[in-house]
């Protein structure tokens, strides 16, 4: 028995295949799914999604918010901003992180803007961490 | 002089030929773009379908009945129109049909005393409504040819805010649906408030879900994404329609050029034949005169 996993972005399906386990981060914390998991709907935070494929290497993706649904050993991960680690360019991610940190320094007292800048930095950091493996 | 006519005809044939080359090229480009746009629309479908499914499951659990995006206003005082057109012309009636449908609907609402708000995608809609002195609340260009999800998000953001704030009571989407390569239809669709997606008692998946965080919170995050996905789908559909319309327009332009070309070259040949005949006549006439003398 394996899980059927689909990682779906708005413009295309990023990954589709069989897996033994899927690890994701919901807004409440990390969660892992294996076969026979109870039906589940969760909202994803900024974090890595690791798909432990039945055959071959793990598939790791940087997911910046999204949703996960589990039913009948089918795991669907929906994310409007998701990127497979193999597609991330490490040096560009590093530069993006530097830019994001710089931008955060320049944000004034506006709370909303600060939160957005924080989230941008967290996203950038996640990409760097994943790209460096 | 017959020679002058011949020259003028030659020039016209040349110009028709070069126009034909251009329209033929545009036809071919549009044809490949139709295919690409269709593929993009296909690739975007799983996301939209899955997100709808999750919403259905959530509403089956009773989440978000009160969500602001589902708010049905008691009286509709202001209607927003999202009009999707193209940046470039040469696509037959593609833009005019969309604009006309939008304007008709808008006038209808106005005659019933409602205010309007215009959100325009594409230069064609922008220039039309600007010219007619309509009030335009937002205008987006450079996205209708190959829309990205980011584009859809940009457009959706403002409209979601306006709706949630109660600034507009209804949002309609005017665009061209892509039915097939040969047929596209302009539709005016109610976009917001979102139709209650819940079909309760359907019973297929009443399986007890675990939620993290609560269904309500997930729903709050999900609905804006759903709006974006639907708008994105409409934009992709419109893009495919645009390219199909352009392909058709360019095909008929090419056909017309071809017809004109045959007609003109026929006239040209006749003119040339005429010149030759008259030249021979002149020579023959001259020779005869000489032998008679």
List keywords for this structure.
heterodimer; A: about 130 residues; alpha+beta; ATP Synthase, domain 1; Single alpha-helices involved in coiled-coils or other helix-helix interfaces; 2 domains; five-stranded mixed barrel; 2 helices; about 30% helix; B: about 290 residues; alpha/beta; Pyruvate Kinase, Chain: A, domain 1; 5 helices
What does this structure look like?
The complex is a heterodimer of chains A (133) and B (293). Chain A has helices at residues 90-106, 111-132; strands at 3-8, 13-26, 29-33, 40-53, 59-71, 74-78, 82-84. By secondary structure, chain A is of the alpha+beta class. Chain A has a five-stranded mixed barrel with strand order 1-2-4-5-6. Chain A has two domains: 3-85, Sandwich (ATP Synthase, domain 1); 88-132, Single alpha-helices involved in coiled-coils or other helix-helix interfaces. The longest helix of chain A is centred in the last third of the chain and has 22 residues, at 111-132. Chain B has 293 residues and is of the alpha/beta class. Chain B has a single domain (28-198, 208-248), classed as ATP synthase, F1 complex, gamma subunit (Pyruvate Kinase, Chain: A, domain 1). Chain B is built from five helices and six strands. A five-stranded mixed β-sheet of chain B has the order 3-2-1-4-5, with helices on both faces. In chain B, helix 3 (123-131) links the parallel strand 2 (115-121) and strand 3. In chain B, helix 1 runs antiparallel to helix 5 (215-292) and helix 4 (149-164) crosses helix 5 (215-292). Chain B is elongated, with a radius of gyration of 29 Å. The chains are: A alpha+beta (133), B alpha/beta (293). Chain A binds chain B through residues 6, 8-13, 26-28, 31, 38-43, 65, 67, 69, 71, 76, 78, 80, and chain B through 40, 43-44, 46-48, 50-51, 53-54, 57-58, 148-149, 152-153, 205, 207-213, 215, 217-218, 221-222, 225, 228-229, 232. Strand 4 (40-53) of chain A pairs parallel with strand 6 (210-212) of chain B.
